[in-house]
From TrEMBL:
This is BnaA02g19250D protein. It comes from Brassica napus (Rape).
Amino acid sequence: MVVNDLICTMSIDIISLMLRSEVGSNHSL
């Protein structure tokens, strides 16, 4: 289903952003 693909891609983007923010904060500290 196209809807499932969109949800999967959106979830992956959100997770990647969260991981990047966490890594950035860790490096800044």
